[in-house]
Structures are given as structure tokens and as C-alpha cells.
């Protein structure tokens, strides 16, 4: 039996898709492919974090919320990352998000970062 190396997947629907944010967060440009988050809806909110605005170049950013509607889809990119890069993604989002696993439209299971108010 051959052990398979598990490569974590990280799904981004927002600023982690931007090359500048990837370079600042991970020190490299991530390779990824288009996919969609099923059963979630997207909204745009204003960021209160000046560091986020400086890194992303934006004052507003997308968030997602569980909709419980299988017809809802949020388009984005799924990236292969290391365990250390998952920690970097958590640090980039700071206290604004919590990381959970979700099944994407492709059937892949990936980490996603959801706004923490959902969990309060």
C-alpha cells in the first residue's frame, strides 16, 4: 500500500486570490483552479482593518454566509497550500474569520475562511 501525501486545499472567494495578497501572506504566488462553494451566499462589506486595505488595496471585501440552499454558489479559486500556509492564511484573516472544511462543487474538500460573527 502506498501512502498518499495529503496536500491541504484552501478555497478563496476574496482577496487571497490576488497576487499581491498571496505574495505578502505566503511569500509566493499560489497555483489554483476555479471552483465554487455550494450552499453559501456572498455579500460585500466594508473593512475596518487598515492593514487589510493596505495589503489588498481595497476598503470593501466579500464575505460568505451559509444559506442552506444547494442552488447557491460562490465562485472562487481552490489552492494547494502547505500546513504552514494555512496558518499564514489564518494570521492574514486575524480574528475576522474562522477556518472550516467545506465540500466544493467539484467534490473536493477544502478549508474556507468564514466571518467569525457567524459563530457568535
From the structure above, extract its key features.
Hypothetical upf0131 protein ytfp; three-stranded antiparallel sheet; about 120 residues; 7 strands; single chain; two-stranded antiparallel ribbon
The strand count comes to 7
Helix-strand string: EHEEHEEHEE
- CATH architecture assignment name: Roll
Give the terminus-to-terminus CA distance: 44 Å
Low-pLDDT runs of 5+ residues are none
CATH superfamily: Gamma-glutamyl cyclotransferase-like
Percent helix:
10-25%
Structural class: alpha+beta
| Cα gyration radius (Å) | 14 Å
Number of domains: 1
Task: Just give the CATH class.
Answer: Alpha Beta
Neighbour order of strands in the largest sheet: 1-5-2
**Dominant shape:** globular
The quaternary state of the protein chains shown equals single chain
Percent of residues in beta strands? 35-45%
Q: Quick check: average pLDDT? A: 85
Pfam family, one: GGACT
Organism: Massilia mucilaginosa
Domain Gamma-glutamylcyclotransferase AIG2-like: 10-104
Protein name: Gamma-glutamylcyclotransferase
What's the arrangement of secondary structure elements?
Elements: E1 9-12, H1 19-26, E2 32-38, E3 40-46, H2 50-56, E4 60-66, E5 73-80, H3 83-93, E6 97-103, E7 109-115
Protein name: Gamma-glutamylcyclotransferase
Organism: Massilia mucilaginosa
Domain Gamma-glutamylcyclotransferase AIG2-like: 10-104
Task: Give structural notes.
It holds the Pfam family GGACT. This is Gamma-glutamylcyclotransferase. Residues 10-104 form the Gamma-glutamylcyclotransferase AIG2-like domain. InterPro entries: AIG2-like_dom (IPR009288), GGCT-like (IPR013024), GGCT-like_sf (IPR036568). The structure is a single chain. With 120 residues, the chain is an alpha+beta fold. The protein has a single domain (9-119), classed as Gamma-glutamyl cyclotransferase-like (Hypothetical upf0131 protein ytfp, Roll), CATH 3.10.490. It is 22% helix and 39% strand. It has three helices and seven strands. The chain has a three-stranded antiparallel sheet, with no helix packed on it. Strand 6 (97-103) and strand 7 form a beta hairpin. The longest helix is centred in the C-terminal third of the chain and has 11 residues, at 83-93. It is globular. The mean pLDDT is 85.
